[in-house]
Amino acid sequence: MDVAKRKSDPLGSFLEQHVLGLVDKVSKVVHDAQLGQSVSEKKRCVKAIEEMMILGKTFTRTARPQVRILQRFPPGAMLILCSQMCACLQSALAQPELQSLAFSAWEKMLTYLEDDDVELMLENTFSTVVQRWSSFDDITQKRAKTTLQYLLKKRTRLIRNTITNLPSLAQFPELASIEDQLQKLRTPTDIGNGFEIFSRRLRHENSGVAAQALVELKAYLKVHQAFLQASAVSEQPDIVVGLLVRSILDCCVKFSQSHHDIAQLSAECIGLVGCLDPNRVECVREQREMVVVTNFHDPSESTDFVLFLLEEVIVKAFLSSTDTGVQGFLSYVMQVLLEKCDFKTVCVPIIQKGDRNSRDPIYLKWRTLPPSVQDTLTPFLTSMYAVAESSEKVKIEYPIFRPESMRPDRLYNSWLKTFVLDLLYKPKNPNSDLIFTPLRRAIRIRDNAVASFLLPYVVLHVVVEGTPDNRKEIGEELLRVLQYEVTADSNVRREEVKACSEVSRLPSN
Q: b vs e for 264-289, b when ≥16 Cβ sit within 10 Å of the residue's Cβ?
């Protein structure tokens, strides 16, 4: 943006620099019930998001986290902004008193954002309308219908691009005319391709989109049982059946802890698929692994570990979360890890110069990341997130595994996070200290993906280089888990104990 334009619209210029911070502030009020905020205050915050879209318009398109960075960086920054706004508004949509205002703000996002950003929101938008339609009041239903008509008329190309992934509106008579237009854009497909489309939809990072896909898949499976049965008994079963099962299982694992309806729907869909012969139908998930050979002594290998962690765990957790508080913690973690591993120092000047031919080793490592991961991480190269530092180290006493004194339904989560957090406080060399310190923040979030990934690495790190007392504590802790027997009168759930004993295998050293 040129200087003259900035001077002519200081409000837009302000929003360009600070909209992400503002969204984070209002999101905390809307999302966190423990703050004791009044309904009127929450309504003001939802309305604030709508007003930011109206006043900022295209300025929000180049929003940056906390500080303004180059216009070369908008895709990732906008992805984060959309993720923050959508998470906030989805939380508001789940609260009846905020629903109308929330969808009004959602409508403004679809109106003012550019095509690339709106396209990312289409599946979420249609799924939201389908899931919330019956709870919408008359005004919100009319607004939703008008919004869908706008998308069909003004964003037709985007609808065409994503039509195979959009849920049907046929169940709502009020939206019959819109469904008729969508049907004209849909291309008839065979049953196998239909299952492949569902496999793709189930891999969506948004829980609402995945839940809606499962609802539709359940109905689709009931209608097309003959296809599954024919495939099961044929000499060469259709590969799409294995892909579908794999997608259902992955979806269940990803969202089951935070969305129990997804776990139930996944189980129902697996039941409709039926028992498959594992010798003939493969649904094995490709799993990348990394071995830390030098136990974090080699700086280059430590950097590779951070990139692997970011790509495989943290970025995915950030994009799939609908909790803005979780997103905030993960934003801070990504920012610090990128800084500690010199990506901020090395990559920012290179990106500013547009020197894609740079042979700097750190930049070459950055370039190995998939483009989508680079887009997500790029804003955190120059962001300025901060968290309040605790003045005292968390005191953790062994044994940590105490089933009778823990909540039966949170035994695994509590034990896993406490165990990993304690080990992260015991780095044994400078590189591990740089990495472990910010990761303590990631352990505190409700999702246990980061803790589950880190457990074998931090256990091995402390076992190899820790003190005899460290090794004794870890050994006795693991034996305590393995030797525990659930009694008939115990409130402890066998599934929770089993989860504690089925952690990932320790990486070789």
A: ebbebbbebbeebeeeebebeeeeee
How many Cα atoms occupy the beta-carbon half-sphere of 224 within 13 Å? 18
- Listed by start position, the domains of the chain span 3-164+171-185, 191-273, 299-501
Query: Region 19-46: what's the mean pLDDT?
Result: 78
Distance CA 197, CA 188 (A): 12
Does the pTM surpass 0.70? The reply is yes
Cβ(458)–Cβ(433) below 8 Å:
no
pLDDT of residue 17: 61
- Residue 72's pLDDT is 33
How many other CB atoms sit within 10 Å of the CB of residue 407? 11
pLDDT given at position 260: 77
The encoded tokens of residue 436 equal 């472990």
> Residues 19, 56: contact at Cβ < 8 Å?
yes
The answer to whether the peptide bond before residue 65 is cis (omega within 30 degrees of 0) is no
- Tally of residues, the chain: 509
Residue 65: predicted pLDDT: 35
- At 134, list the tokens: 């019956």
Confidence check: pLDDT of 63 > 50: no
Positive or negative: CA dihedral 95, 98, 103, 106 = negative
Model pLDDT for residues 300-337, shown as the tens digit of each residue: 999 999 999 999 999 988 887 777 778 888 888 999 99
Could you say which DSSP state residue 436 is in?
A: H
pLDDT score at 392: 57
Indicate whether 42 pLDDT > 70.
Answer: yes
Q: Which residue has the higher pLDDT, 411 or 473?
A: 473
CA-based nearest residue to 249, from 265, 264, 271, 266 = 266
What is the Cα–Cα distance from 331 to 328, expressed in whole angstroms? Answer: 5
User: If we measure between CA atoms, which residue out of 110, 115, 448 comes closest to residue 258?
Assistant: 448
CA nearest neighbour of 149 among 116, 101, 184, 182: 182
**Are the CB atoms for 92 and 50 separated by under 8 Å?**
no
249: tokens are 């299982």
Contact between 133 and 167 (Cβ < 8 Å) = no
For the stretch 453-491, what's the b/e string if a residue is b when 16 or more beta carbons lie within 10 angstroms of its beta carbon?
Answer: bbbebbbbbbbebbeeebeebbeebbebbeebeeeeeee
CA distances from 323 to 29, 122, 259, 299, 344 (A): 12, 20, 13, 33, 27
What six digits make up the tokens of 362?
């750190």
Containing H/E element for 368?
none
Average pLDDT of the segment spanning 484-508: 70
Alpha helices by DSSP H, listed for 256-342, are 260-273, 299-309, 315-320, 324-340
State mean pLDDT over 441-457: 84
Distance between CA atoms of 423 and 436, rounded to whole angstroms? 9
Residue 469 reports pLDDT greater than 90 = yes
Query: Could you read off the pLDDT of 168-179 as tens digits, one per residue?
Result: 999 999 999 999
